[in-house]
Amino acid sequence: MGFKCGIVGLPNVGKSTLFNALTQTAAAQAANFPFCTIEPNVGKVAVPDERLDAIAKIAGSAKIIPSQLEFVDIAGLVKGASQGEGLGNQFLANIRETDAIIHVLRCFEDSDITHVDGTIDPLRDAETIETELMLADLESLDRQILSASRKAKSGDKESKSQLDIMERMKAALDLGNPASSVSLSEDEIPLAKTLCLLSSKPILYVCNVAEEEAQLGNEWTQKVSAMAESKGAQSVIVSAAIESEIAQLDSKDDQMELLASMELTEPGLNKIIRAGYQLLNVRDYFTVGPKEARAWTISVGDKAPQAAGKIHSDFERGFIRAETISYEDYVQYNGENGAKEAGKMRQEGKEYIVQDGDIILFRQNT
Fold first, then answer.
1. What percent of the chain has pLDDT over 70?
2. Which of 49, 125, 302, 351 is deepest in the core (most CB within 10 A)?
3. Higher pLDDT residue, 160 or 107?
4. Taking the CA of residue 11 as centre, how many other CA atoms within 13 Å lie in the half-sphere pointing to its CB?
5. pLDDT of residue 36
6. Cα 347 to Cα 179, 328, 356, distances in angstroms
């Protein structure tokens, strides 16, 4: 369980290099020319979590199943993509159902790597891409409004509600504002998600910098950070070149040694995952036993039955209680039996809000 991110950006900003490094594959051809990615690439990576390793060791679990993060990398977008320029627009459909968008911005100078606009300016690049996403959304909304209007006239209540949301979002887009700028009620949020609008998704800006700037960033990353903050988004600094070097090392010790030599404490993937979890407002809980230790991703605020439903819908329907131990107590008292003896296992009911790192055994009607 995890979440799915679409990777967007102009050609030659390091999208495919970063994708290759993050997924530790050579699925996307990274090359110094535009549109080298001509098919959408999909890669899954395990979410690193030392807590999962720790509880698996205590329980003697035969298998460890971490949460997964899925990346979808599409061809580089260019100005005019919504009118058919370049190739990226052909693949926008591949990221419509993602949970978030990772927007890779070039924040490094390199005369050997061309830029489609001739100069480095990540703020300009961000505006170019986001304009194309909004234009693509307008085109999508025009089609969806036509369909919803027909259904609404026949008395379909859901279509009437959707039509109202669509018209408000179209009005925002017509003014040059993203769909995410439209205020929605709690009841409207699920309906809005079914529209799969690109500009309604949370954005994580990834500043791709030169190796020597990976620790502190530069003037451009500071500007991107300020822009992200003004939009309620997140930004992280990553060097795709360093991530590529890390991906080629099999040993974790070798990877950490390389990072230490560059005065870095963790791979860029960890920063992207952490920012992604914060952006999407999600957290992980665990199930653990002799067979497997497993992480499950839920939304912040999910109650015990909803968390149980991530395992199987029957668990949510037949929910009785959640036998819960905090991660800290599980480790301190050396597992389930020790936590029980110390009185640290809690019997939680339907209203319990699952906390990050909870270790849970669900009881349900069979």
1. 89
2. 125
3. 107
4. 24
5. 44
6. 42, 17, 17
